Amino acid sequence: MSARLLPFAVTCAIFVLAYGLAWLQFPAILSTRVIGNLLTDNAYLGIVAVGMTVVILSGGIDLSVGAVIAFSGVFIGVMLRDTGLHPYAVFLLLLAITTLFGLAMGAVIHLLEMPPFIVTLAGMFMARGAAYVLSIDSIPIRHPAIEAIQSAYWLMPGKGRLTLIAGLMLLTVAAVTLLIHRSPFGTRVMAVGGDARTARLLGVDVGRTTVAVYGLSGFCAGLAGVVFAVYTSAGYSLATVGTELDAIAAVVIGGTLLTGGSGFVPGTLIGVLIMGLIQTYIVFDGTLSSWWTKIVIGMLLFGFVALQKGLVQLRTGDRAARRRAARQSGRHRATA
Amino acid sequence: MDAVLEARGITKLFPGTVALDAVDLVLARGEVHALLGENGAGKSTLIKCLTGAYARDGGTVLLDGRPVAPRSTADAQALGIGTVYQEVNLLANLTVAENLMLGREPRRLGLTNRRSACREAARMLADYDLDIDVTRPLDAYSVAVQQIVAIARAVSLSDKVLILDEPTASLDAAEVERLFGIVRRLRDRGLAIVFISHFLDQVYAISDRLTVLRNGRNVGGGPVTEVDRLALINMMLGHDLAQAESGHRTRAPGNGPPAAQFHDFGRRGRVEPFDLTVRKGEIVGLAGLLGSGRTEMAEVIFGIDGHDSGTAEVSGTARRLDSPRAAIRAGMGFCPEDRKTDGIVADLGVRENMMLALQARRGWTRPVARREQDRMVADYIRRLDVRTPHVEKPVGELSGGNQQKVILARWLLMNPGFLILDEPTRGIDVGAHAEIIRVIEELCDRGMSLLVISSELDELATYSDRVIVMRDRRQVAELAGAEVSTGAIVSAIAAAPQQRTAP
Ligand SMILES: Nc1ncnc2c1ncn2[C@@H]1O[C@H](COP(=O)(O)OP(=O)(O)OP(=O)(O)O)[C@@H](O)[C@H]1O
Ligand SMILES: [Mg+2]
């Protein structure tokens, strides 16, 4: 097992183990119905966490995404209420806006050499503020086209429903996995996250990559906003407070290093599912407060940071061994 | 002359420093051009200005007679200028193949065609007899292998100009020879190659012409055959080299009480058990090829890799040296060979970097008084001739050789009883070289004991009281007193192994 995929393997093992334990207690939890709900309930989080994964892989962070989701809901609500635009047109407009917003943050981060933490924190305030400006009240979102999306699903064996928005989330995970782990762009993201100075000397356009990464995160946040609006049938400027932190937690639990340059996109999906599973368990139990979710996630995060620390140490030890082996073979080559 | 690249009046300013002051560099087709100068002369800066890594503040660059102004290293690559920057400059978190193909990945349907990328990468390395798994992360391999990968990448990118900034610093003799074979082949194909090195032997072996910089200005150059070694050193330093290096040193060899003693000390798979005694005030040299176990021996002694056999005594008391902390507490110091990963803290200033080891030994609750710090730092800046405008300058902004001096100063001013130096003069210019050797000898006269690992055998022979030769992870010879000479070390390294236990 390569040390790179070990965190992912551990995440998967934890998920299976946790699911198994829950199943021992509540056999009903192992059904496609529950799984379908798990995916649907966490669709927006999954999409936004995937965008966050890319940002973190590039060595940055995006704190604006929770606010962007809230803005998206309000924007959709207001546009549908006040204009005659078709929802699909509104969605496209919104995605353009959030993508541009992300691109702009990326440009500021690169051109002004400002820390992503600060720039996206400012972005968070701006997006949340824009949502308030549009509407303070919760706006209902109703439209036949949206109802069609809400009721679209594929019936899985066992009567579970894979909804359209859950499918959209899985599709996003798959697309971004390909983009990051199989495309030249992904290699650039990893390069910038590994060491931006060196990447620049090797001819990587660090600025373009940075801007694109935040643009992608903005797009994902917008898409998550659409999904959240469809899922809740409402737009509310106070919604999804702190979602950016949930997303970061899912990324870390999914085995991506916060320092950038190392990680695996599908791990984030498992991270999201672990968080969703805890919530589902609490619902099944019925007596536990939902705040337990937070506590368990806190403990998991802690465990993962410790695990990664251990792995890094393991790997440096391993590296020394491999370095020796390589030297040895180099010497044999030289004498051959 | 058929000039490929013609740089005129290149000027580069950093806050508080004129790094380059109207420097000219003309490269002819099919030549190897050595770029020389002391640490901080501006060699690396000139390269970075030519390849767009830095924006230049003045001057023109003509490539094949047309003015060019690469604004990024990607532009320079597109123009056919491939570069290996000083230090290994690849990405440790990517695979070997990704590093080699970064920026020109073969694609299929918009995605990277990994199979053909790996095939291409392996083909690029085949020229260097480097048969490694290109799908492994780069940091799985030694610095030397990484260096060769960096060179292979640069070579494959250059159609017109190849720039090598101290490419040989971490290569052994055989690897250098292989590199030179490739450089000659490229030269014969018409490439212009810039070669930067402090190893004058290598400069004379490979170059056709040279350009010398001092303090950011051109001070001379011409065909190699017309500039002899002495004239070259004069040009670089601006004065004669003090005759410190000539001849074996005269002071009495250390014969005080043992400062450190190791019996049957070793670790399986790293270094065979050895016996070693270093006396107070003695300099013991450690010679051998890359991979012979020199660095491993030092790392085991210093507790970086705990030993699994034998005992150690430091200044007469038995010690368990199973971690660097324990070693430091026992009064030992270790200046490692890989300064980029194990050494400098790039964002801290010169003073803080120099004080790190001493402060760590005293513990953070007992800070060294600021005035005391300033005195010590100023002293070492002067003695090692560290070129820095002021003591708070971030070390990352110093030239490569000056960074090395800062690390060396860190350990020297900690003044441990027993100090291990791994390649202390790597990347250091001829002038400072002599200076450093003088400082080392002086410290020994004051009672410090040293174990010095070096690939520069002349240097080792100059100051060592004894030289231990390693091969295949074991001590194979020990030369003492009058036996210590470059020739004797070379023959001990090359001598056929008496007996081989395992293949
Ligand atoms: N990024 C930077 N910021 C400020 N000053 C710099 C920077 N890079 C280099 N310098 C300064 O420019 C001068 C030339 O440095 P350069 O790295 O070109 O030297 P060099 O000739 O390559 O030396 P070496 O042989 O030690 O590698 C030095 O005085 C150095 O301190
Ligand atoms: Mg340099």
From TrEMBL, chain A:
Q: Which GO terms describe its molecular function?
A: transmembrane transporter activity
Q: Native species of this protein?
A: Paracoccus chinensis
For this UniProt entry, which segments traverse the membrane? 44-76, 88-111, 117-141, 162-180, 211-231, 264-284, 291-308
Q: What is this protein called?
A: Simple sugar transport system permease protein
Q: Name one Pfam family in it.
A: BPD_transp_2
Query: Which cellular compartments is it found in?
Result: Cell membrane
- UniProt topology in membrane: Multi-pass membrane protein
Q: Which sequence ranges form a coiled-coil region, renumbered to this chain?
A: none
UniProtKB/TrEMBL annotation, chain B:
The listed locations are:
Cell membrane
- One GO CC term on file: plasma membrane
Matching entries from PROSITE patterns are given as: ABC_TRANSPORTER_1, ABC_TRANSPORTER_2
Q: Indicate yes or no for the key word Transport.
A: yes
Q: Enumerate the UniProt keywords alphabetically.
A: ATP-binding, Cell membrane, Membrane, Nucleotide-binding, Repeat, Sugar transport, Translocase, Transport
- What is the topology of this protein in the membrane according to its UniProt annotation? Peripheral membrane protein
InterPro entries reported in the protein's UniProt record:
AAA+_ATPase, ABC_carbohydrate_import_ATPase, ABC_transporter-like_ATP-bd, ABC_transporter-like_CS, P-loop_NTPase
The protein, known as: Simple sugar transport system ATP-binding protein
Origin species: Paracoccus chinensis
Q: Lineage of the native species? A: Bacteria, Pseudomonadati, Pseudomonadota, Alphaproteobacteria, Rhodobacterales
